[in-house]
Amino acid sequence: MSRIGLPRALSFYQHYPLWRTFFHQLDVEVIVSPPTDRDIVAAGARVIADVTCLPIKVYAGHVAWLRDHGRVDAVFCPAIRSVEKDALHCAKFQALPDIVKSTVPDCPPLLDIEIDVHRRRISPEDAFKRLGRRFTWNPLQIRRAWARAVDADAAYRSLITADQLTYPEALARLYPEEWKTPEAAADVPQTLTVGLVGHPYCLYDDYINHDLLALLRRLGVRALTSEMVPPEAALAGIQQTTGQTRWFYENWVSGAAGHYLTAPGIDGVIAALAFTCGPD
Questions:
Q1: Which of 13, 60, 79, 189 has the most neighbouring CB atoms within 10 Å?
Q2: How far, CA to CA in Å, does 208 sit from each of 41, 156, 168, 212?
Q3: Is pLDDT above 90 for 277?
Q4: Radius of gyration of the chain from its Cα atoms, rounded to whole angstroms
Q5: Residue 280: is its pLDDT beyond 70?
Q6: Contacts of 121 by beta carbon, 8 Å cutoff, 6+ apart
Q7: Looking at the predicted structure, is the pLDDT value of residue 250 above 70?
């Protein structure tokens, strides 16, 4: 059985159920790097240029961990350039495999699929079905793997918006043997409700954000995050903020911010952003 590494960074939290299901349906073992710590950040910072944003340094550190400790055959490192027409991803997502290959010493083999709906008309389905042929030539198994991965992704997103869960809370509910439920602050009454917006790699990397969500809970703050906003509400929220949909991932952040700025019962909005991020 092949062992494929998944760095716990960048778009990991958004897509883990889809990736996990797809690989498992192809009889591939998935190895996830551990939560970010000082050593992982240091490993990435040593090889990535200073001017590069912190999330990329963290990602490189996770790849290095999988190289040294994961005993993996390859690391899944997609080049996600666009997933819909007229909305692009930032440069770090578009060039991620090239960045990793050129900076991480003794870089492990990368499964570097390309997703680019806007320019090259390569949909996620096209990209993953091509990826599936690296593990089997059985087209029925590949199609079944993709269909079940899409179902897992839809269930994940529906659970988050229906039950107002964060990504880690939803993962703990879906995969209780793999994920620990985030601890609630004991005996602290919630006196404020805020919209907490940002990319998952900023909101849920407790090392680089200094355990932001736990801090808010201890202060009696209920935090509603970006992913809890349904897609249609986020799209309407964009008109309250940037008014444009040029950057795909930033749409979710700005749309959630616009939604929470006008939603009843919200006392304020906190944005957790990566320093030097142009789209943010």
A1: 60
A2: 9, 25, 16, 9
A3: no
A4: 19
A5: no
A6: none
A7: no
What pTM did the predictor assign?
0.91
Place of tokens 């550190």: 61
**pLDDT for the residue numbered 251:** 67
CA distance 280 to 278: 5
178 Cβ contact list (under 8 Å, min separation 6): 171
Question: Do residues 146 and 113 make contact, with C-beta atoms less than 8 angstroms apart?
Answer: no
Mean pLDDT over residues 176-181, rounded?
Answer: 86
pLDDT value at residue 87? 66
Contact 33, 6 (CB under 8 A): yes
